[in-house]
Amino acid sequence: MTHIDWIDAWSLEEGAARVSKIYAEVFGGDPTGTWSAPGRANLIGEHTDYNGGLVFPFALLHRTYVALTPRTDSIVRIVSGQESMPWEGDLSDAAPGSVSGWAAYVVGVAWALREAGYDVRGFDAAVTSCVPYGAGLSSSAALEASVAVALDSVYGLGLGGTREEPNDDGRKVLVEACIRAEREMAGANTGGMDQSASLRSREGYLLLLDCLDQSISHVPFDLESSGLALLVIDTRAPHQLVDGQYAARRATCEAAARALGVGTLREIADDPAAASVVYDRLAQASTDGAFGDEALDVVSRRVRHVLGDIERVHVVERLLAEGRTAEVGPVLTEAHASLRDDYEVSCDELDLAVDAAIAAGALGGRMVGGGFGGSAIALVKLSEADAIAAAVVEAFAGAGYSAPGFMIAAAGAPAF
Ligand code: GLA
C-alpha cells in the first residue's frame, strides 16, 4: 500500500497546550492567555487581490497558536516552536528593516498597531503552529493574525470581538496591521487576501472578498453533502514569496493598469466595453513604450489571467449557489492552465500534482497561493480521495520528487 502523509491539524486544546508548554519552559508560569489563527486555502481567484479583484478563500483547520503575557515596558521577547532562534528587542526601536526573519511578522503587527495609534506595549510570547511552513497556505498570515488578536485582547483595543461575535469592522483594522507587518517589516508586498481569510472568515463558509472595497460575504462551503472533498496537496517544493517573481507580476499588472488609464485591472473586468478593447489598447501602449523592455505578449497574458480569474470567481459563486458543486472542478483546471501558461507562476511539482490528481479521477484542480512551489487543491469525490492521493504520491516518486503531504480541507474558524 502506498503511504499517504496526511498533515493533521491539532485540536484547539492540543494547540493551546503545546504553546503554553513552550511558554512555561521559556518564561516560567502561565501566560495571560492563548490565541490562535488559521492558515488559508483559496478556492479560486489567484493573483487577483492586488489587482482590486475578487478572491474566494477559506480558513483551514490548521492554525498557529500564541501564548502571550503583556509587559509594562516596551520589551518584546518571543520564541517559536518551529524556529531555533528566539528574538528579543525593544518595540520602541522597531522600524522597517530593523527586524528580520520570523520575528518580523510578530513584531511587525505590534509596530503597525502602534503606528495606527493603538496603545500596544511589550510582551512575552511563545508561538507554535501546525500550518505547514512554506506550503503556500499562509503560515505567515496565521502568525500575524494570531498575534493581532492576542494584542487586541491583552491591550483591550476592542477590535476583534469574540469567537461567538466577531467584530468585522474591528477585524478590518487588524487585517490592515497584519498587511503592514508583512509589507513593511517582512518586506513581502502581498495583496491582503491571506490576512483577511485568517481574520474575517466564518467556520463552514468560504469568504468571498472584494479587494476593491474589502467588502465580504460568507458563502456556505459544504462539499460533503454532494459526496465531494477538496484535497490539498502540499508539494513540499520550496516556496518563497520574498523574491522577485511575485513583485514582478505585481509590477506588470500595475504598469498595465496605468497604461489603460485605470486604478486597478478590476475596473477593466467590470467594464465590458473596456474589456473588449483591452488587448488593442495594450498593443498601442506597448508601441508608445509604456512597458519598457517587457514584451507585449507577456503583459497581455498577465492581464488575461487576472481578468479570467476574476470572471472565474463569479462563475464558481454561481455554480455553488445553484448546487452545481461538481462543475467547479473544470473551472479550477482552467484556472491552473491560466496560472501556468499566462501568469507563469506554477512549477513542475504543482503541474504534476494537478495532472496526476486529474488522471486519477479528480474533477479538477489547480495550484493555490503565490505559486513557484507550495500547494495545489483538487476537487475529488470523497470516496476517491485516498486513491487519488496515492496516485499523486506515486507520480511524485516516479518523478524523483520528495513525498507530498495531504489534507482534506474543511472551512475552519477565524482567529480568536
Ligand atoms: C500570496 C499573497 C496573496 C495573494 C496570493 C496569490 O498568497 O500573500 O496576497 O496575492 O499570493 O493569489
Structural write-up:
By secondary structure, the chain is α+β, with helices and mostly antiparallel strands. The protein has two domains: 216 residues, Ribosomal Protein S5, domain 2 (2-Layer Sandwich); 186 residues, Alpha-Beta Plaits. It is 42% helix and 19% strand. It has 13 helices and 13 strands. The strands form three sheets. It has a five-stranded mixed beta sheet. Strand 11 and strand 12 form a beta hairpin. Helix 3 packs across helix 4. It is globular, with a radius of gyration of 21 Å. The chain starts with a strand and ends in a 7-residue tail after the last strand. The model has no long low-confidence stretch (mean pLDDT 97). Bound molecules: alpha-D-galactopyranose.
- Helix/strand order, N-terminal first: EHEEEEEHEHHHEEEHHHHHHHEEHE
The CATH topology of the largest domain is: Ribosomal Protein S5, domain 2
Tell me, briefly, the overall form.
globular
- In whole angstroms, how far apart are the ends? 40 Å
What's the pLDDT, averaged over the residues? 97
Largest sheet descriptor? 5 strands, mixed
Overall tally of structural domains: 2
How many strands? 13
Q: What structural class do the secondary elements suggest?
A: alpha+beta
The proportion of residues in beta strands is: 15-25%
